[in-house]
């Protein structure tokens, strides 16, 4: 008597293939992606490695090394000269002032405006928000001359005021980020605050702003990158050595009679270190903050 044996030859391979990791199921595509990522990473990291290597060379070694990223000599004294050859700490203080104060002003003004657009229901608020967003289409160069004339008439040229005061009037991009963040928060928070007797400003200051910590951190870090490396603003408004910032002072290392390239690169490394440290330490907060605002 014959015995029938039930087999399922067609389903088993399909199930096994679906259970395999993505990179094994699409090995050629994965390898191609890795090759593109490695080449792209090398293109971005090479200038930074060359800058570090050059900061450790002698002036004669810069010409003979060419594009090499490995120094034949390690002259750590270049970093000592970078700090002592010019008023490094005074320029650092100016850079800190023109970075921290604008960050505080931008975060507070943009958070306040974003909260108003997200929670206050008034006529034409959508139109006003669209007009605010439309200002992002204006290139910054358009407003340079009017701003310079304004600060010149106010007698603020060659001071830090032109680098600090505009931040307190907000930025359309960060207003958009905060508006998206506050719009995703539950409306019951506002109702509960109203029941407790809060006005709109107290509601923003005591309820919504503390809960907006991910967005505040992300925006602060992004702003730090921009303000710390700002060169154009100080180049327009600062004339004397007293108020120079680090990026503007760095430009003084170049001259028509010759540039001390190792000293220039050592100073550049020192100026870049705060940005690198903050970025790597707060990378997760940047991602979480921008993701929660729906900005990606």
From TrEMBL:
TM region positions: 31-53, 96-117, 124-140, 160-182, 203-228, 263-282
Any one Pfam family match given in the protein's UniProt record, by short name: BPD_transp_1
Superkingdom as given in the UniProt entry: Bacteria
Any Gene Ontology biological process: transmembrane transport
Compartments in which it is found: Cell membrane
Keyword Ribosomal protein: no
GO CC, alphabetical: plasma membrane
Membrane topology classification: Multi-pass membrane protein
Keyword terms of this UniProt record: Cell membrane, Membrane, Transmembrane, Transmembrane helix, Transport
Residues of the ABC transmembrane type-1 domain: 92-282
Similarity comment text for this entry: Belongs to the binding-protein-dependent transport system permease family.
Protein name: Carbohydrate ABC transporter membrane protein 2 (CUT1 family)
Species: Kribbella amoyensis
């Amino acid at each position: 008597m014959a015995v029938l044996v039930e087999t399922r030859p067609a389903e088993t391979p399909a199930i096994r293939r679906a259970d395999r990791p993505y990179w094994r199921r699409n090995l050629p595509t994965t390898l191609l992606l890795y090759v593109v990522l490695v080449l792209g990473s090398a293109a971005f990291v090479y200038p930074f490695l060359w800058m570090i290597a050059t900061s450790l060379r002698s002036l004669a070694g810069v010409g003979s090394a060419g594009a090499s990223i490995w120094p034949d000599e390690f002259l750590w004294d270049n970093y000592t000269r970078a700090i002592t050859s010019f008023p490094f700490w005074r320029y650092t203080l100016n850079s800190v002032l023109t970075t921290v104060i604008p960050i505080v002003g931008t975060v507070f003004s943009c958070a306040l405006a974003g909260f108003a657009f997200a929670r206050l229901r008034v006529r034409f608020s959508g139109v006003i928000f669209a007009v605010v967003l439309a200002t992002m289409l204006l290139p910054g160069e358009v407003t340079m001359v009017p701003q310079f004339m304004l600060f010149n008439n106010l007698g603020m040229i060659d001071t830090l005021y032109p680098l600090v005061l505009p931040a307190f009037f907000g930025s359309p991009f960060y207003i958009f980020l905060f508006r998206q963040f506050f719009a995703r928060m539950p409306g019951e928070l506002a109702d509960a605050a109203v029941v407790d007797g809060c006005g709109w400003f107290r509601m923003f200051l005591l309820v919504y702003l503390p809960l907006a910590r991910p967005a505040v951190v992300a925006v602060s870090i992004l702003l730090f990158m921009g303000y710390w490396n700002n060169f154009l603003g100080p180049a327009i408004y600062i004339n004397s050595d007293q108020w120079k910032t680090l990026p503007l002072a760095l430009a003084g290392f170049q001259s028509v009679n010759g540039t001390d390239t190792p000293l220039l690169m050592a100073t550049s490394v020192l100026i870049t270190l705060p940005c690198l440290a903050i970025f790597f330490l707060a990378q997760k907060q940047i991602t979480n903050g921008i993701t929660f605002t729906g900005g990606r």
